[in-house]
Amino acid sequence: xxxxxxxxxxxxxxxxxxxxxxxxxxxxxxxxxxxxxxxxxxxxxxxxxxxxxxxxxxxxxxxxxxxxxxxxxxxxxxxxxxxxxxxxxxxxxxxxxx
Length: 98
Prior knowledge:
Elements: H1 2-29, H2 37-64, H3 70-97
Helix pairs in contact: 1-2, 1-3, 2-3
């Protein structure tokens, strides 16, 4: 049982790490908001992977600024945790296939 828990924690950490890397690469390469349809499609595709990192960053900033409640922050954190886990399972599956 401990092995399964460690795999789940590793998958979550791998997913959140992949999310942060993709989010930061996107921020470095793209300076403006998407205007055209192609740019919006690319943005949605990138945010599918970068979403947990971006969502947690926005939630943490809002909580520090007292713009959201503790319940809203922890709900966003739980969503990020689950999203990172799902993304991490995908990353691990790709890693095992390679």
